[in-house]
Amino acid sequence: MKTVQASAPGKIILFGEHAVVYGRPALAVPVTHVQARATLETNKENGFRIIAIDLDRDYLLAEAASDDPLAVIVKNTLKYLGRTEPPDAVLHISSTIPLARGLGSGAAVSTAIVRALGEFLGQPIPPHQVSALVYEVEKLHHGTPSGIDNTVVAFAQPVYFVKGEPRPIIRRIRVARSLTLVIGDTGLVSPTRQAVGDLRRRWETDPERYEGYFDEIAVIVDQARVAIETGSLELAALGKLMNENQELLQTLGVSSPELERLIETAQRAGAVGAKLSGAGVGGNMIALTPAEAASTVAEALRVIGAAGVIITEVC
Ligand code: MEV
Questions:
Q1: Which of 103, 192, 246, 285 to mutate to test the pocket of ligand 1 (most atoms within 8 A of CB)?
Q2: Which residues contact 77 (CB under 8 A, 6 or more apart)?
Q3: Residue 233 scores a pLDDT above 90
Q4: For 12-63, how does the pLDDT look when each residue is reduced to its tens digit (9 = 90+)?
Q5: Are 155 and 206 members of one domain?
Q6: What is the CATH number of the domain that holds 31?
Q7: Which of 18, 134, 252, 254 to mutate to test the pocket of ligand 1 (most atoms within 8 A of CB)?
């Protein structure tokens, strides 16, 4: 009887979401307070069984629909490992990452599965390959993902990311002075595919204007990267960059009254900057705060009705 376990963190995008789909850089960090977990154990019976407790699902790989994301990641990983047949095993999947809220729950679940399969079969898979396998499934969920979500989750490190063919540019970010962030959940779904698709249609009507917004976001991302890596800016100045990024996201049409309510509340409670994180519309916002103000900001978000609040340290 063999058992292996693998996990993967959630993620937030600090700067540059949406523009990253159009080739601009973005910064993202893992959120380790929330995790997806995959456990694989020998099946006493024949077959490969998938039990996803949070989704209330229990089924055999052999009977899964061809577009079932969990089955797809299992099959793709087995293929990558050169296995023609799945092992007789039970895969248990669970996650504390809120679903469809811009925190990378899908990428984390896929990452945990790929890692667990590699370990179970005695063929550990390196992070860049984990990321590539997860990216293929992200395409099923999101249509035209930039690849930043699978990258930050699979590498589990702060990253500077620029999408690219044949390979993206991925640089690990070294954080000079640790940053305190409060993450607030609107309680609403963040429909990535729809948000990215709707923005694509707006871009098609006036590409020049939207390319200009993306360029402005790229400047903010590059300034933020330098500030985070060198500690050259006061916290307030980094917060200002966050606010400027949020204004551009509003202009792009991916914010919402619910996100803005949380953002304004965080700013009033002592955050130096705040913005939506991920695809927007619903999902989560992030607030940059002095360490000593984090609990006040978190409390203010709870009072106003945030569906979930996480305080995290980026270091
Ligand atoms: C989603 O976490 C981030 C987006 O930029 C989409 C993507 O990069 O694939 C909105």
A1: 192
A2: 113, 114, 117, 118, 125, 133
A3: no
A4: 999 999 999 999 999 999 999 999 999 999 999 999 999 999 999 999 999 9
A5: no
A6: 3.30.230.10
A7: 18
